[in-house]
Protein: Pyruvate, phosphate dikinase
Organism: Streptomyces fuscichromogenes
Amino acid sequence: MSENKDLHAAKFVYDFTEGNKDLKDLLGGKGANLAEMTNLGLPVPPGFTITTEACKVYLDSGAEPVALRDEVSAHLDALEERMGKKLGQADDPLLVSVRSGAKFSMPGMMDTVLNIGLSDKSVQGLAKQAGDDRFAWDSYRRLIQMFGKTVLGVDGDLFEEALDAAKEAKKVTVDTDLEAADLKKLVTRFKRIVKAEAGRDFPQDPREQMDLAIKAVFESWNTDRAKLYRRQERIPGDLGTAVNVCSMVFGNLGPDSGTGVAFTRDPASGHQGVYGDYLQNAQGEDVVAGIRNTVPLAELENIDKKSYDQLMQIMETLENHYKDLCDIEFTIERGQLWMLQTRVGKRTAGAAFRIATQLVDQGLIDETEALQRVTGAQLAQLMFPRFDEQAKAQPVGRGIAASPGAAVGKAVFDSYTAVKWSRSGEKVILVRRETNPDDLDGMIAAEGILTSRGGKTSHAAVVARGMGKTCVCGAEDLEVDTKRRRMTVPGGHVVEEGDVISIDGSSGKVYLGEVPVVPSPVVEYFEGRMHAGAQDAGELVEAVHRIMAFADRKRRLRVRANADNAEDALRARRFGAQGIGLCRTEHMFLGDRRELVERLILADTEEDREESLRALLPLQKKDFVELFSAMDGLPVTVRLLDPPLHEFLPDITELSVRVALAESRQEPHENELRLLQAVHRLHEQNPMLGLRGVRLGLVIPGLFTMQVRAIAEAAAERRNAKGDPRAEIMIPLVGTVQELEIVREEADQVIAEVEAATGTNLKLSIGTMIELPRAALTAGQIAEAAEFFSFGTNDLTQTVWGFSRDDVEASFFTAYLERGIFGVSPFETIDRDGVGSLVAAAAKAGRATRPDLKLGVCGEHGGDPESVHFFHEVGLDYVSCSPFRIPVARLEAGRAATQSTGSDHR
């Protein structure tokens, strides 16, 4: 718990004048920032915030805290006194909005209700007070529509269909062309829908409206779409949401009113300028829903220069105050500007790197804070391919470049199909007129999102940017027909569901068919094909270069690569690897060498076995010479043979068929029969827990010593050639120190023989993989015989959980994730409580025995951003991962070393 929350544990409601931006845990992001803007003297409509603590009590018990109603009443009384009007009074009603506001932004995932306080009586007073019947009835129909869907659970399509019917009857296309009489009829129709679907009348008591709306916002924390979004963004499920009750200001009072969303910098590129959308005569939901196409924010200068100038000044104030890109919602009511929300804005990966370095150059933040403003996940996005500019593809449409990337897939027109096809292995593009929160499943499943409506602040754009999904919005020339599952492009060509399309989220272009892709410039930079400072490097590469250089200066963890050959090793070195943390020697036994392995397995005598090992030795030595040359001067950890031997033999079913066919045809099959007998002899019910790793080295005489000799001779050859080989020999799957002692004794003898024969001092270190629970629990003993530990977290996760990774991820992990048993797969991010606790305990025990024990990790967790932070915390020396994840690991190691709890840019 935060100190702030402890201090105010019994208080459930705060006026906007009481809070500040540091109370996000208690007031949620929206409430905390409304309070902060109020403190800054900006024009914020008065209101109050119900805390996340009240929400948690409600969700835990099913009832509001006892004190909540009285606190809300007291704050409502104060609000009414300040505004000089009563909630929902007949002659001049106070109206309020009820909005959600969690600690972390969850755009569109939870509920909002506007215009609370309107009723059959107060709508007349609002019309009189505003001097505008149309405005009053438009506000009333919006309330019934929102309240019916959000609070009473009425199908929102029923309201939309009634609205479409009203426009069709009037022969108009937009709702602003409906007159007061039309809207009055629509209100009657909406109330009938509520009665029929909810089994009750729309409530006329304004306090009942507000209380029910508050409960609905609490309950929206646990909707399916909110849970899915939290899982996707790794937001904890126990935070709850605050509720903000704010006096209404109206953007739908005519052409001198409107609503908009603004960004202090472009959230797609990071460039400074005037970015955002504005919609005249509208309420806020019209903008984010993408139902009506907006005008660029710059147009506001021509529409209402006074409000525009004031908004620009406020935006500068907020960016300098928050020292970051700010996302702002505002309303203009008859020429009066009101600020409804600000938050640190979501941004694309490229924008995150550019903005971080821009703010350093402006002196608003230092390099340490800049490093916290970017993430490894964002860097990974920047390494994705892009469309080939040299391709002859011609765009058939163009929309707003909402979230960059190159996405290719089959067009699908609803969320269900996107998920279904994606699970079948298809790559899809979700095509919609506009998205809404119910489309989240499909957006996650799709390679990219294309909409014909909406702008950079629409639901599709905001959510896509947050997820790092390619998105093109507002492609108005494309006619999307979701019912007929087709899209018509200019010129009349029809794209049917299943046709391949390509979308470019950086340019907004839409193409028919598959457009070829080329490597990202960021990958070219890491590979040394583009140098920072070069004329064609571009500001993105410069920004990445600056932040990576700072991360490398600050990080304590070294970063190695998982690589098994010279080509991968050289690539890893270009990507910044500081050695090889895992060379899997089993990958060297494939291809043409499989026959030699078969001979080894089939050997009937010691002489036959020795002959096979002698044949393998020079091949292994050649592998290691190439590897040590590629990584000269850097450590190379070579893991001795790990998988079960039967993996090098043919499939038992195929071999059985071959033997049976040969016998039926009376053809020679002696070798196949011997192979089949060997497969049967080596067959195990659970081979990953059977004869593999160190057990092979103990049961198959000469196998491990052949590999050790090959390593030693290769190292000696490199050293005599004036190279600097730094080989480390790793014994896999050790469960007890006695196993390691036996293998080590044999290895030390071989190394001594090679040193004597070559006249070299090799200084080869010998260690082990910690990948079994027993090894972790007896690490203090094992450290007596090991100079280093490398945690094999893939196998350790399997053995701790009792999971077979190859089976469980496809069988029940999806259900576990959906039901919240996992927040994320334990194979993707390390399980801190279980697997992580064993890693921490083993590291501590190992170093207690051997203080200079080198500690690393070589499972793919070594390239996972969150896991890298854990490995830093428990004091490992290095992480090792696949070559393309090395930059991510370097960045996250730097972030871990400079971690600031004050930074969280989800």
About this structure: Confidence is low (pLDDT under 50) at residues 1-8, 901-906.
